[in-house]
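Translate sequence into structure tokens.
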Amino acid sequence: MADEVLSQNEIDALLSALSSGEMDANQLKEDEQSKKVRVYDFKRALRFSKDQIRSLSRIHENFARLLTTYFSAQLRTYVQINVASVDQIPYEEFIRSIPTMTILNIYSMSPLDGRIIFEFNPNIAYAMLDRMLGGKGTSVNKVDSLTEIESSLMTQLFENALDNLREAWSSVVDIDPILEEFEVNPQFLQLVSPNETVVVVSLNTTIGESSGMINICIPHVVLEPIIPKLSVHYWMQTEKTKVRKPGEYEQLTKNLESANLDLKVLLGETKISVNDLLNLKPNDVMQLNQSIEDPLVMKADNESLFYVQPGKKKNKLAVQILEEIEKGEQPNDE
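Result follows.
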């Protein structure tokens, strides 16, 4: 390996530091001889690249927007949800990080293997429940004494939110999520081995005056079949393939060209009183606001397109196009 060549400025800075005592020559020799060792924790093995983590973040940013709209409509109060962080950690660390008593929903992700966990902070869960029952959204933490009615209402609310999860993931894979379990004690959950790598998506959530976190735990076994699809290269390649699909543009153009379009030409307008309208008789003449010297306007779906002049072609009424009406231009009849 070739020695690194220092520039003159770097040599001058090094000599200046040695002469001023800021650096010790002996210490430099010891540092050079010592081996550079970096600590690696095998329990926290990183199994997802930064690119894949960013893709998961984009998916759940879309999910957060959909969930905000859904809960706003269901609870009829101010709701704001956004992605706070996306990390990969051992499953054991995730279990230790959440409260000992909390709201846990376990979903299957068919056709993907394994299951994922949604952990709703009790402050958020009870604010939702209070709004559903007609309250102001007050949060009261009593997870250890949930009634069957409260559990059923929460389960129903979380089940109805699955359409948003399905839509958010549709850009990567078509899933059919199903709520399988509703639990309050994380110690009873052993989805994967303690050292298994999981991705934890944390969502900052505000409902009314209550705030808390929604944590989504996705084990590696769930994401393993679709890991190649989580790269930016795959998404760009997919979009490129879609754009260059042979004959797609030509077929779309052909379909548009064969579509029927209703056109109309307005001869003019006038205003009369209701009394005059009721007294109209055959051969009565009404004066329109359209001058015979001005062109008429051709419209399609009430959109002004062309200036035209009336006439006949083969004994049939017809119009001749004189000029195209530019966008933003006010036609003569308006």
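Note: The beta strands are 79-90, 103-110, 115-120, 176-183, 197-207, 210-219, 263-266, 296-300, 303-313, 316-324.
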